[in-house]
Design brief:
The protein has three helices and five strands; from the N terminus they run αβββββαα. By secondary structure, the chain is an alpha+beta fold. A five-stranded antiparallel β-sheet has the order 1-2-3-4-5, covered by helices on one side. Strand 1 and strand 2 form a beta hairpin.
Length: 127
C-alpha cells in the first residue's frame, strides 16, 4: 500500500504567515482561496514554476487534508487542484478548471485532527 505523506507544516520561505497576498488574481480565484481558508486548509504560496504559481494547502494534523491549487502566473486564473484527504487517503482528488476546483474544495471537510495526533486513521481521529 502506498502511503502519501503530508507536506511539512513549517512555513514556506517567502510565504506570508498571516495572510496571502492575492494581488493579480481574478475575483473568482480569490473566492476559491477564501473557500480554502474557510475549510481550514491554511493556503500559502509555493514556489512559482514556469507559467504557473502554486498555492499549498495543508490542514492541521496528520489526518487533515493537504494538496495544492495551480494558478496561471499572468492570468491569475485557477487551472487545477489536487487534494489528499489525510495521510491515510487511498488516492488524491483532482479537479481541472475553476468551477471543478470550487466543487472539489466545497467537498472538503474541516479537519478535527490536532497537531501531535497519534491515531492510526482519520476515522479514529474524528471521535
Amino acid at each position: 500500500m502506498n502511503t502519501v505523506l503530508a507536506p511539512a507544516s513549517e512555513p514556506i520561505a517567502g510565504a506570508a504567515e498571516t495572510a496571502l497576498d492575492l494581488t493579480g488574481l481574478t475575483s473568482y480565484t480569490t473566492g476559491i482561496v477564501r473557500l480554502a481558508e474557510a475549510k481550514g486548509l491554511r493556503p500559502t504560496w509555493g514556489q512559482p514554476h514556469g507559467r504557473t504559481r502554486r498555492i499549498i494547502l495543508n490542514a492541521v494534523g496528520p489526518h487533515g487534508a493537504f494538496g495544492s491549487i495551480v494558478i496561471g502566473r499572468t492570468s491569475g486564473k485557477v487551472l487545477r487542484a489536487e487534494v489528499i484527504h489525510g495521510n491515510d487517503a487511498k488516492r488524491p482528488c483532482r479537479a481541472k478548471g475553476p468551477n471543478a476546483v470550487r466543487v472539489l474544495l466545497t467537498g472538503v471537510r474541516r479537519s478535527t485532527c490536532q497537531p501531535g495526533c497519534v491515531t492510526t486513521s482519520s476515522a479514529d481521529c474524528r471521535r
